[in-house]
User: Fold these one by one.
Assistant:
Number 1:
Amino acid sequence: MVASLTPGSRPRQPSLAQLRAFVAVAEHLHFRDAAAAIGMSQPALSGAVAALEESLGVQLLERTTRKVLLSPAGERLAERARTVLDAVGELMEEAEAARAPFTGVLRLGVIPTVAPYLLPTVLRLVRTRYPRLDLQVHEEQTGSLLDGLAHGRLDLLLLAVPLGVPQVTELPLFDEDFVLVMPKDHWLGGRADVPREALKELDLLLLDEGHCLRDQALDICREVGRRPGAPVATSAAGLSTLVQLVAGGLGVTLLPRTALKVETARNDQLTTGYFADPAPSRQIALAMRAGAARQPEFESFAQSLREAMRALPVRVAEPA
């Protein structure tokens, strides 16, 4: 006999053990078999189901001396109970992934002037050292990446710094010099001591608005005193197009060292010039939300990336 609840009273919260016992009986329709399936004694299982019926104020089973049947209410609630237990199982799996670093999903945002040149190193590292990590890559400009980080759409960013953004922690990876890329017959071609001041009068080709590399190049020009009216042609959405414009004789451009081999190796109409020390440069870092729950994991990932990037033409940052 199941005790009925008084009007206005609320059922007591069932325990997971009670739900698990009820679902086992609903599946096997036999107390002994259900008890064996979930590793409970038969008396304990019977008591758990009876306690669940009492707490809910609903008869779930119809018991006879020969068989067990689900009541109409039991049929409906068995499905609900399975859903609850499945959800709890998923919760435990997520918690296990959180306890075990470098498992589960990592949503990495990367700027376009980094992605083609560093992703091979990043992906190789993840494949060999973190095979259980589900890396999802999103290539976007800096503003979009920062918005994604702030709103939880992205977990970690790979981009040029400093950002100067509150609540964002930067983990420096390396510094790399800029190289001057010019048409084949340019008078500065092949030099290893190009002065920064040469940028004052050159016909400079830059990326479109929104690319941080454009802003960095303009900062360098301002530092050397480039006059405001000096030609600056903004004609390309990506570095590959920019380099082709240079090869066509429309001007010169600045490329980061990591992009140089990829972007110039296929074109014999180009030449390069290296700046005298100290050469203009940029810093690349990982960026995360300040106080991120996965901060220790991200810091370890940054150190692994530093080691993996020592083979690149960069100056690897020392960990803080």
Note: The chain has a mean pLDDT of 86.
Number 2:
Amino acid sequence: MPLATDDFLDIDDVTPAELDALLDRAAAMKAGETDPRLPDATLGMIFEKPSTRTRVSFETGMTRLGGHAMFLGPDDIQLGHGEPLRDTARVLGRYVDGVMARLFDHEDVETLAEHADCPVINGLTDEAHPCQTLADLLTIRETVGEDATVAWVGDGNNVGQSFVVGAAMAGIDIAVATPAEYGMDPAVFDRAAEFGADVEPTTDPEAVVGDADVVYTDVWISMGQEDQRDEKLAAFDGFQVNADLLAGTDAKVMHCLPAHRGEEVTDGVLESDRALVWDQAENRMHAQNALLVELLGGE
């Protein structure tokens, strides 16, 4: 059955039951147990930000499903060149079967969804990265199991915010350690609480790592924040995921990539058998394929 939502802008646009079903479908498709198709379907992919995993996973995924993905960069369409976003959305909705957008401002993806007469998927905004969360939850299922505790260590960014809510929906225990000035939006913890999670953020990484099955981190300086580099590097002193922080634990390590090796995580950790990052990257495609089939009505 298709999802109750027409669009996927953040992880809690679906219900916990729908999230569970999405992950079940993704696992089945990955294992080759089912082979749904989207014949002749076209996905318009809008990119304000450069990408490796988002572009390749969606484009390859649509090909595997029997459809077609169309890359629309800032120099390819009128986005940001004078045409209102709502007009771009209206036109795209009459051409394509779905839109995936990787944008800066979250309000822009909401505008697309409001005016496009087709499903819209958030491929990343400054506030949320729900497709990454789907891949993360699939990876945790496959490796450490759903009875897991995950520690988020580092910047309270878009990836972390979506993951905290998604983990709560999946029944995964989550702990959060960020510098005080770079924490998550308090509304994120309120949303997680709606699914039974009681997240009390801390500024002490060691306090959350000790009991964790997985330690999750991400870059400290995201795209568009390069002018904050010196300030942020000073604020994140002590938050690096390294051998010392992980000492005495069996915790696996997750990172959505790309990683700034030597900043938020060491090269040694990423190259160790603790790292789940390559499974996460692969699972972007499998999780998104399941989402595409559900939203676009695959056969």
Note: The CA atoms of residues 36 and 299 lie 5 Å apart.
